[in-house]
Prior knowledge:
- By secondary structure, this protein is α/β, with parallel strands linked by helices.
- 38% of the residues lie in helices and 22% in strands.
- The chain has helices spanning 11-22, 59-75, 93-104, 152-157, 189-201, 212-215, 218-221, 247-258, 268-272, 280-296, 311-318, 323-343, 355-365, 406-426; strands spanning 4-8, 28-32, 47-51, 80-84, 108-112, 120-123, 126-129, 132-133, 164-168, 180-184, 207-210, 238-242, 262-265, 298-302, 349-353, 369-377, 380-387, 390-397.
- A hairpin with a 2-residue loop joins strand 16 and strand 17 (380-387).
- Helix 2 (59-75) packs parallel to helix 3 and helix 12 crosses helix 13.
- The longest helix has 21 residues, at 323-343.
- It is globular, with a radius of gyration of 21 Å.
Amino acid sequence: xxxxxxxxxxxxxxxxxxxxxxxxxxxxxxxxxxxxxxxxxxxxxxxxxxxxxxxxxxxxxxxxxxxxxxxxxxxxxxxxxxxxxxxxxxxxxxxxxxxxxxxxxxxxxxxxxxxxxxxxxxxxxxxxxxxxxxxxxxxxxxxxxxxxxxxxxxxxxxxxxxxxxxxxxxxxxxxxxxxxxxxxxxxxxxxxxxxxxxxxxxxxxxxxxxxxxxxxxxxxxxxxxxxxxxxxxxxxxxxxxxxxxxxxxxxxxxxxxxxxxxxxxxxxxxxxxxxxxxxxxxxxxxxxxxxxxxxxxxxxxxxxxxxxxxxxxxxxxxxxxxxxxxxxxxxxxxxxxxxxxxxxxxxxxxxxxxxxxxxxxxxxxxxxxxxxxxxxxxxxxxxxxxxxxxxxxxxxxxxxxxxxxxxxxxxxxxxxxxxxxxxxxxx
Length: 427
């Protein structure tokens, strides 16, 4: 029986939140598209994560999608709703919180936006990224959805008139709670866990919101635990497909390239002309990239231009391509390339960066259900899926997560896992 519905606004967010419960042993599935009838799902599924894909929609569209999902879940008897928000507060925060509040029928929605494990903290209702107000961080310069305010209350108030209450970082058991959207501070996991425990004792965990940070402390409190999954042995061959423009991810690619990893930068035509990936040239290059990944053990496919290059900007201007069309074209192209590499026989662990890119790939292979397994590194989710009767493993990572050495560290971890498997088999 589904005991918890998580509604995320993008694909990587759905995965990095769902994996918090999968890692604790709860039966967890991540779905794309419309919410199915929860009462008819497998009894093994306790946590259902819906990728509502509302990050880039208007506030009204996002509200309608989230409201409909919450109503369907409540009608099916799902007891708890969790609205997953972006850890940097991008997207339709106010509209989606309002939708959960209105559709859920509860007097309060408890919102803990922090993710202290990843340097996202909230103090006095102001959100920080590694100590910098979020609107002054790299997320304030995001080309698609820049964060304009550091105040969580201001961000919410842009899209809803529902009353908000800053609650601080602690909650007393005898404290009377107001009605509306309650916004909590958190600068460490200890504070977050104490707030969650107090809410549980009041039976107030049935309508909550936050990112993967708050979700990570909920599994035990909601009784969503079981046998923890074993980390599978992954092939050490690594294909990295990047559709993220986040400077943190770009720095990770730069460092990997500086240490000798081959980095294929897609040209503007390759990224943006839908005729290209159907061409003979594309077929030839994909075969070459397949061979290169097999030979070298790690390969990067990158949608970012070289520093100081204006190629993509000029192409976009010349062809009157909007930002939305640019984003969708890049995810579409990378999705096609990765699919074609699999069809060409590539046997590799894949890492796909950027929610749009990951979703584009899943759409092109026709997969709508994923099984989260664990976080292979902080902020990097390992999940499994089946395609053409074969099982594959993919690592997803939000663009803003990870150290600059992330890719090389990940590849080294895969090599160590393979070596340990060989040694174990030899005993």
